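Form P-L/3: holo structure prediction, ligand cobalt (II) ion.
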Amino acid sequence: MSTASVEAASATGTAWHPSSWRDRLATQQPQWPDQASLEQVRKTLAELPPLVFAGEARQLQSRLAEACEGRAFVLQAGDCAESFDGVTADSIRDKLKVILQMAVVMAFSAGVPTVKIGRIAGQFAKPRSSSTEVVGNVELPSFRGHMVNDINFSEHSRTADAERLVRAYHQSASTLNLLRAFTKGGYADLRQVHLWNQEFIAASPEGQRYEKVADGIDSALRFMAACGISTDAPELHQVDFYTSHEALVLDYEEALTRQDSITGQWYDCSAHMLWIGERTRQRDGAHVEFMRGIKNPLGCKLGPSASPAEVLELCEILNPDGIPGRLTLISRMGADKVPETLPPLLAAARDAGHPVLWECDPMHGNTYTTDGGRKTRHFEDVVKEIDGYFSAHSEAGTWPGGVHLEITGDDVTECVGGAEAISDDDLERRYETMCDPRLNGAQSLELAFRVAERLSV
Ligand code: PEP
Ligand code: CO
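OUTPUT (holo model):
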């Protein structure tokens, strides 16, 4: 047994290995029709270079520790499901622009450092409530994300194809390459804040409000220079931007799990941070088993059925040493349920002394289908859940550590409401998501202002 396996074993009583999840029930896994192809793909992936490095994951964990201790706020945002199609440099850049804008609004208005994490460069797999979809009298496997199958409703498209795991890896690598260039190569320089305001956003009320923030940043930089304070610090010219996705398809995650040469510990090098979804967080399930042994910072979603006892168990299994920043619990209760469902969970972790970083996902508990058959969310429900989340933390004396959002930089019409008052009828105009509805660029910025207002009080 390696040192790392022994260490994990001593915490829980059983040995951990990147493949020990195979002894547990793994729900939400694709039905791969061709096992030989899957085996080949696992070998291919295991030989490919890591996408991220252990040292970067450790750096993120220390930033998350600051958020856990109330000294920073996390903005985790991106697509519900990334696509293999139509991914251009422009679409990646525009998503990054909106995230940078949101982070600036929060940091400038509230004076709290923002840790930026994308749901990006790996968010290709989706859990489904039903494993099949029926249209007319045809029943086919559900779409499970581009890592698994295609969205078109045909037998060929919906058949799981293991080769897609390799494509997901390469697509993640090229997305990550571009993100690294944008964030370190001058584009994220604070002197460029005006450039992040895309035309369609700049024309909206929140875009104009953003311009005022950007002017304020210009003045602050000029003032610092006039005082003789150097503005050469790298923090002003580049940003740290981290990647994350739901660790759902365990064959993929296992193949990218590597032993760090410096510490000997295991890291899942498919992303900096990984999370467990609401449907796969069973304490004795395969996902929890896999995640407890990797040393990346972890997230776990918590829906309205989560009990205080489950929260304590998850803390003990996923963060037995109580390391701040190691475990983020992401509540997604729904706007109406948050006042009654969240406080007992906050109290349980607080009273047991577990260092939990709390995030609010105000998206997944607020989805509904319109009469026209579109899945949507109302902007005001999203804001209401965030308000309930802030209030619950304020009453519990805990820190509302961050938000977890589904957004895009594009001018889509998928969520209703917001300053532009997108209506049910507008949804037909630009409804482009492959899975859940995302806030568009203007709605995302508007939400950032609403979050900043809560952070400032
Ligand atoms: C998601 O984050 O896209 C998702 C499926 O969330 P949840 O597991 O909370 O339903
Ligand atoms: Co989603």
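COMMENT: The longest strand covers residues 73-78.
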